[in-house]
Design brief:
There is one protein chain. This protein has 235 residues and is mainly α. Helices cover 62% and strands 3% of the residues. It has two domains: 82 residues, Arc Repressor Mutant, subunit A; 132 residues, Four Helix Bundle (Hemerythrin (Met), subunit A), CATH 1.20.120.530. Helix 5 packs parallel to helix 10 and helix 7 packs across helix 9.
Length: 235
C-alpha cells in the first residue's frame, strides 16, 4: 500500500477523532479499498504521529460504523461497503469531505424518493400549528434567499425546510431521518445547487400543499422535486 497519511500528532487535540476521520476519508474515497488490510498499528502510529491508545480508539470508531474489522494475526481490514452504516451522522460528515461519484448522489436521491414524499403527505395531515409556523418562517427565508441568491444561505435554508417536513410527520420513526439526514442534505444540495438552481417553484408547491392539509398534493409535489435533472443528475 502506498497511501500517504497525514501526521495527526502535530495537532495535539482530539487525536482519536482525527485519526478516524483521516482513515475514513481514505476508505470512502477509495484510496484504501474494500477488503484491503491497513498497515500495521506501529507503522500507522509512526506515520500519523499518534499513540497506540489514540489509534486503537480511532479503529473502535470505524468498527462501530461497520467500516473495518480486526482479527488476530490478520490485522485491520476494510469491510465490504454493504456493512457500512451510511446513516451514521459522523460517517455522513466524513462523506462531505470526499469527492463523490455521481452514483452516490443517485443512491441518496433514490432514498429520498422512497421516504420523503410520504413524509410530506404525513406532514400535511399531522403538522401542528407550531410546526406550520416554523415551516412558514423557513420557507419565507428560502424565498428571500432565492431572490437574492447566496449558495451557503440557500443550502442552510433548504436543509432546514426538508428537516421540518420530517419533524412535522407526527411519526416518531420519521423524525430521526430529518435529524440524521440534515448533514447529507447539505452535502447533496451543495452539489445540486452549485450552478445556482433552487427549484423554488417545486418547494412552494410542497409548502402550500402541506399548509392546506392536502396530503396527496404534497406527496406529488415532493415527487416532482425528485426528478434527476432538477438535481444536475443524468437519468
Amino acid at each position: 500500500m502506498t497511501t500517504q497519511f497525514t501526521n495527526i500528532g502535530e495537532e495535539k487535540k482530539h487525536l482519536n477523532a482525527q485519526v478516524a476521520r483521516e482513515l475514513a476519508v481514505k476508505i470512502l474515497s477509495g484510496a484504501i479499498k474494500e477488503g484491503e488490510t491497513l498497515p500495521s498499528e506501529p507503522v500507522l502510529c509512526a506515520k500519523m504521529g499518534v499513540s497506540r491508545t489514540a489509534f486503537r480508539e480511532a479503529i473502535k470508531m470505524l468498527y462501530s460504523k461497520g467500516m473495518v474489522e480486526s482479527k488476530p494475526k490478520v490485522g485491520t481490514r476494510v469491510c465490504d461497503k454493504t456493512k457500512w452504516n451510511f446513516l451514521d451522522v459522523q460517517l455522513l460528515e466524513w462523506m462531505v469531505d470526499v469527492e463523490t461519484t455521481e452514483d452516490i448522489y443517485h443512491q441518496f436521491l433514490e432514498l429520498r424518493r422512497a421516504i420523503e414524499p410520504r413524509a410530506c403527505a404525513l406532514a400535511a395531515q399531522n403538522a401542528t400549528k407550531e410546526q406550520r409556523i416554523a415551516m412558514t418562517t423557513v420557507f419565507q427565508r428560502m424565498v428571500h434567499v432565492a431572490d437574492n441568491f447566496d449558495q451557503a444561505d440557500w443550502i442552510e435554508a433548504d436543509a432546514q425546510f426538508h428537516r421540518m417536513i420530517f419533524i412535522s410527520t407526527g411519526n416518531s420513526f420519521f423524525v430521526p431521518f430529518g435529524n440524521v439526514l440534515a448533514t447529507i442534505f447539505k452535502w447533496f444540495f451543495l452539489f445540486s445547487s452549485k450552478e445556482g438552481g433552487v427549484c423554488i417553484g417545486e418547494h412552494r408547491d410542497m409548502y402550500e400543499a402541506i399548509m392546506a392539509g392536502e396530503s396527496e398534493r404534497a406527496y406529488n409535489a415532493c415527487l416532482s422535486l425528485m426528478h434527476t435533472h432538477k438535481h444536475r443528475l443524468t437519468d
